[in-house]
Write a structure and sequence with these properties.
Blueprint lengths: L1 H6 L7 E14 L2 E10 L21 E6 L8 E4 L7 E4 L7 H7 L15 E4 L3 E4 L1
Antiparallel strand pairs: 1-2, 1-3, 4-5, 6-7
Length: 131
């Protein structure tokens, strides 16, 4: 298993090492009769934990490495306009307030008009939602 994963350039950062699923066809007389499932766990060096280190893949096997449920890439926002330090900022919490972002960006300049501020939210690359 380790060799196959290394040939695939390893795993992504968000991979769940404790959830690798292998689906194998149970072939009888060259006919698929059912699907067998093997659930593997890997260590940091991609070795199989608590199982057969020499787990061998067979033709038609499918390998799925699941995403770690607690892993989340940082999300960034862009703040622009009459703000002291416009630019990209990382959201430090799920429920971060716009006022906190403005404060982190140094606050408004003397030329700003906060009552006319607009929030543009991009959702699922579909477009912009204007609030």
């Amino acid at each position: 298993m380790k060799d196959v994963l290394l040939l695939a350039n390893g795993l992504k950062q968000e991979a769940a090492l404790d959830r690798v699923d292998i689906y194998r066809l149970d072939l009888t007389n060259n006919k698929s009769t059912r699907v067998l499932v093997a659930k593997l766990k890997l260590d940091a060096e991609l070795n199989v934990v608590g199982g057969d280190d020499d787990f061998e893949l067979e033709p038609f096997d499918q390998v799925f490495v699941r995403y770690a449920p607690e892993f989340e890439l940082q999300r960034n926002i862009l703040i622009s306009g009459e703000i002291k330090y416009p630019g990209t900022y990382a959201l430090t919490s799920y429920n971060m307030r716009i006022a906190t972002l403005i404060k982190d960006a140094g606050g408004p300049t003397n030329e700003s008009f906060l009552s006319g501020a607009t929030l543009l939210r991009k959702k699922d690359n579909v477009g912009y939602i204007i609030f």
